[in-house]
Amino acid sequence: MQAAIIAVGSELLTAFRTDSNSLFITSALNERGITVAFKIIIGDRRDDLARTVRGALERVPLLVLTGGLGPTDDDITREGVADALGLPLEEDEGILQGIRARFRARGMSMPGTNARQPQVIHGAVVLHNPNGTAPGQLVARDGRHVLLLPGPPREMRPMLLEALDKHLATVVPGIGVQRKVLKTAMKSESYIEQQAQPVYSRWAAMTPPIETTVLAAPGQVELHLSMTSASKEEGERILDDAAAELVSVLGDDVFSDDGRSLEQVVGDLLRSRGWKIGTAESCTGGLLTSRLTDVPGSSDYLDAGVVSYANWAKTALVGVDDATIAANGAVSEPVARAMASGVRKRLGADVGVGITGIAGPAGGSDSKPVGTVFVGVSFPGGEVVKKYRFLGGRDLVKGQAAQAALDMVRRALQAGTPAP
Amino acid sequence: MQAAIIAVGSELLTAFRTDSNSLFITSALNERGITVAFKIIIGDRRDDLARTVRGALERVPLLVLTGGLGPTDDDITREGVADALGLPLEEDEGILQGIRARFRARGMSMPGTNARQPQVIHGAVVLHNPNGTAPGQLVARDGRHVLLLPGPPREMRPMLLEALDKHLATVVPGIGVQRKVLKTAMKSESYIEQQAQPVYSRWAAMTPPIETTVLAAPGQVELHLSMTSASKEEGERILDDAAAELVSVLGDDVFSDDGRSLEQVVGDLLRSRGWKIGTAESCTGGLLTSRLTDVPGSSDYLDAGVVSYANWAKTALVGVDDATIAANGAVSEPVARAMASGVRKRLGADVGVGITGIAGPAGGSDSKPVGTVFVGVSFPGGEVVKKYRFLGGRDLVKGQAAQAALDMVRRALQAGTPAP
To answer: Cα(A16)–Cα(A9) distance, rounded to whole angstroms?
Structure first.
């Protein structure tokens, strides 16, 4: 079953705010086997809303609207939906008394503007609002359902769940959407796609089908699998098998199939070996160490790190030979290698990482353009140094360099290096 | 003039992600006098997109689409818009060569999947993408315009501005929305609101009115002023006066009125004095140093930093006395003070910063709950140490602690400390 979400409010069309209620609504719908076909964000105009509701009902059998149920002139959701459905609005005396009582309990009398809130679309089920004055409404028409909810999350959320589980339970399927995410590092979206597409393209035709979405960010490409299944167990089993098939073609480019981030995977690999990691960062300026310490409990495997931005700091704090810098330049393979082994020794760590590069926008040259980064990893099984050429601005170069360093550590550790 | 924004991507219809590009797009449109009538978020289905584009073009003369221009099967924006407009797709040889060259420059050959990206809607203006492989497209049809932009923000943003200012400049109105942003650090939203509201509430009734929006994030509250004016100069003058009035009530809680971030302001203060900063981070794990080095040219004032996570590292790398840690605990005012002065001395810096705290979720106690953070700043004019108690998860504690440290350095430097 498919639904659409319509968020009503001109403030949601400014540059400063957008709809966020739809994330909670989507989650609640997904858990009940309903997928979201589209979302619309629209201003406080009655004719616009009426037209939008009519158009959306031609495409999906369930609409969830949030916002525009308040007392002021620009709250037009009741009127717009009534227009769209061709149904009249009627005053509900019970709601009116309830709002009056609510104000009275706070020692106030009901402002005249609130008199619009008891307007109910003919035939609607009224949804009680324990956290505010605007009641919700659920209208059925020709086998389709329109749910009107207030905008404030604390009012909207309980009413949504009540509507879904009490009033719509007989019309929504009882099955859920299962998901699984495979994460890969340091491969391009098109490369991953080329490997994975022959596998997952077959799944779309299966019964039930598995939907696959490819999500790419700099240095990380994720494959999101989802399916609707009769039972949670069956869905999990099918997705586990599907994920295993993808891993068989993607190999160790996949670093996680259980939601863990790259820094969590690296941390778990270090902890399982009882190893410590030490970092010497130049162009990443502390970002790698900050990501490593984003993980709760990272003090188990990280004691210290050094940001050696200036050349003297690479020598004094990390032990890189002056002559190595003079002969090769600070951004070079020998310096990255010396930073990794030097910081490993200086910090008494098992794994040492050195990063040196040109984050830009200045500092590049023909032979070493902006984005040139060398990463070294020194570990009990040996050492590895790689040269990268990252595209994008300063933040992207920093981000990809930190990601590359984490992935090099992961691969070195997963390659089965022996305990020291 | 009105526009609509359509974000394409099934991942934007999950419970985990939603469209955020539309905020930047809205801002750019507003600045050029264009308002956003509605926004639609839609999945990767060609027929759905075609229908949506057709419906949207009946209501507004300008559509901005983001996403779905990648190389994979589920990137259907080119096809969907071509269907909606009844125009054929044609291969653009120049784009194909450009993508090939891009892969070649990185020592790779173009994967076959990228062959779909050079498909251009008949008659479209091709928008060059310096930050990725997917070109943008601008299609005109019956006096209406459809702009196709990629999803990744760093690719989308420059192409949007190019399209608006170069290719659409003759069709968009020349009157603009002027904006000014005041940024404050380490004060609560309600405190800033209480100070500022009596000032800005009068502006809404002015002719022309100034709109004020308060935006709060952990550790930072911003006041966004905007107005539509007949001329850029008049708008700027009115907003400058308005900003000055707000600064007169908010005082030095305002750190920026010109768009600069807190780390940029701190960097400029250091550079103008010819000073260097050195950092010793425990619970922030490198985040402060990473933020300082996010600023281009930060090597002018930052040579090095230390992440001293373990106690031995605080002693060995920063020079904190063992006895100070033993007597007070690692998370304490004396240790933050000793870290600040110690790292200043060890790194030969003019300003030293020490941060020690409990980021959580474990490690808290009754006397020092999770979120307890001490920040010390040692500088030529003296030293200051503050105790904080931050709320929220690990990432929020780290973020607020780095923000607090930056703001303490700013205040110390702005207080007019003499040059050394």
So the answer is: 13
- C-alpha distance from residue B194 to each of A395, B224, B240, B396 (Å): 36, 16, 21, 24
- Closest CB to A55 among B13, B55, B292: B55
Q: pLDDT digit string (tens) for A316-352? A: 999 999 999 999 999 999 999 999 999 999 999 999 9
Average pLDDT over chain A, rounded to an integer:
91
Backbone φ and ψ of A302, nearest 5°: -130, 115
Are β-strands B382-389 and B372-379 bridged in parallel, bridged antiparallel, or unpaired? antiparallel
Q: Do B43 and A52 touch (CB under 8 A)?
A: no
Q: What is the DSSP letter of B223?
A: E
* Separation CA B409–CA B371 (nearest Å): 20
Q: Which amino acid is at A62?
A: L
Q: Look-up: residue for tokens 């373990």?
A: B310
Find tokens 């994330």 and name the residue. A23
Task: Note whether A295 and A321 are within 8 A (CB).
Answer: no
CA gap A33, B391 in Å, rounded:
36
- Bridge partners of residue A226, in order along the sequence: A179, A211
Angle between helices B394-414 and B262-273 (to 10 degrees): 30
Indicate the DSSP class of residue B132. Answer: S
Number of residues in chain A: 420
Of B22, B39, B286, the CB nearest to A307: B286
From the list A291, A1, A356, the residue with the least C-alpha distance to A145 is: A1
**pLDDT tens digits along B128-147:** 888 888 889 999 998 899 99
Tokens of B260: 């600069």
* DSSP β-ladder status, A277-281 and A302-308: parallel
CA gap B417, B311 in Å, rounded: 32
CB contact under 8 A, A296 and B394: yes
Chain B contact set for A285 (CB, 8 A): 286, 289-290, 292-294, 298, 302, 305
Q: Would you call A287 and B285 a contact, using CB atoms and an 8 Å cutoff?
A: no
Check whether B174 has a pLDDT greater than 60: no
CB contact under 8 A, A304 and B308: yes
The total of other beta-carbon atoms located within 10 Å of residue B13's CB is: 25
**Adjacency order of strands within the sheet including B220-228:** B211-217, B220-228, B177-185, B254-256
- Cβ of B306 within 8 Å of Cβ of A308? The answer is no
Q: Name the closest residue on chain A to residue B402, using Cα atoms.
A: A290
- DSSP code string of A224-291: EEEEEESSHHHHHHHHHHHHHHHHHHHGGGEEESSS--HHHHHHHHHHHHT--EEEEESTTTTHHHHH
Q: By the 8 A CB rule, do A137 and A121 touch?
A: yes
How does pLDDT run across B197-210, given as a tens digit for each residue?
A: 899 989 988 888 88
How far away is chain B from the Cα of A286, in angstroms, using its nearest Cα? 4
Chain A residues within an 8 Å CB radius of B16:
23
* Chain A stretch 56-75, residues whose beta carbon is closer than 8 A to a beta carbon of chain B: 59
Q: What is the pLDDT of residue A110?
A: 77
Which chain A residues contact residue B290 at CB under 8 A? Answer: 284-287, 290, 398
User: Which residue is it, tokens 């951004």?
Assistant: A331
Is residue B301 within 8 Å of B276, Cβ to Cβ?
yes
Residue range A305-314: mean pLDDT, rounded:
97
Per residue, the 3-state secondary structure of A100-139, as one string, reads HHHHHHCCCCCCHHHHHCCEEECCCEEECCCCCCCCEEEE
C-alpha torsion sign, points B374, B377, B378, B383: negative
CB atoms inside a 10 Å sphere around CB B92: 17
Q: Are B284 and B404 in contact (CB under 8 A)?
A: no
User: pTM for this structure?
Assistant: 0.75
